Amino acid sequence: MPELDLVGSREILVVEDDPLFRRLLSDGLRRHGLIVFEAESIDTAMSHIHEHTFPLAILDLKLASGSSLTLIPELKKNSVEVRILVLTGY
To answer: How many domains does the chain contain in total?
Structure first.
């Protein structure tokens, strides 16, 4: 599998409330040399966003704590070039 080409930081954000899927996804990304910050809720994700600038964020659309779409403006504040991948189980 080709290496992910991220500009700048190798830190990425994974927001997923399913613990098993979050772990599988994060572990796979770590195997590619990425530094993964995990969040299971909007609040935890916001804390990470306020502390780091992410070139990539992977968001589960529907979380128990609300819609992850509310995170996009905050991610864009830190970096207008952030890449955002939204996943859903529907």
So the answer is: 1
